[in-house]
TrEMBL record:
Domain GST N-terminal: 3-75
InterPro entries found in the cross-reference section: Glutathione-S-Trfase_C_sf (IPR036282), Glutathione_S-Trfase_N (IPR004045), Thioredoxin-like_sf (IPR036249)
GO molecular function, one term: maleylacetoacetate isomerase activity
Keywords noted in UniProt: Transferase
The keyword Transferase appears for this protein: yes
Superkingdom classification of source: Bacteria
A Pfam family hit: GST_N_3
Presence of the UniProt keyword Transferase in the record: yes
GO biological process annotation, one example: L-phenylalanine catabolic process
Name of this protein: Glutathione S-transferase
SUPFAM superfamilies listed in its UniProt record: GST C-terminal domain-like, Thioredoxin-like
The organism of origin for this protein: Paludibacterium purpuratum
Amino acid sequence: MQLIGMLDSPFVRRVAISLHQLQCTFEHRAISVFRDMDLFRQINPVIKVPTWVCDDGTVLMDSTLILDAVEAQTGKSLMPHELSARRHALRVIGLALIAAEKSVQIYYEQNLRPSDKQHEPWLERIVEQAAAAFALLEIELAAQPLDAGALDQAGITAAVAWRFARERLPQCFEWQRFPALSQWSETAEALPAFRAAPFYG
């Protein structure tokens, strides 16, 4: 099984950390959708990260769908089974995925699109969406702290979204407004599964 993509993507990193936490053996191929586009196209013509190549050659995309397939194959899960705990995890994951998605869009808008082509109303909107997602995440983590001793998908996804935004968008948000998220990121990054898939950029 192969995970294709760079660990500076929060979605690739989410999958990689989850795989390490699940103790799932895989090969990581750090292929860039920008620098190595022709090679990536040979593996996945859609050129989408993360890409997951199953043992039978099936190519999957989207971090949530990849993790669903892996958990079905391994019989292991990073999701709580009890209903209220699962509902809380799904809320945290949903907010974190939105924060990650909007942060990636902001980064691309600011760094890939020429300044004279940037659409300010669109940029303002996605910044507002990302800020709202982080603010709601902060409320969730402050009310119910994540458990480093029982690292689950909510904890992984929240931490990778936060790390990407802090690294790539240092001037974009008032980071001091998010002490619970900041503390969780620091705690999570020290865990073995995170150290096995470090952010780099």
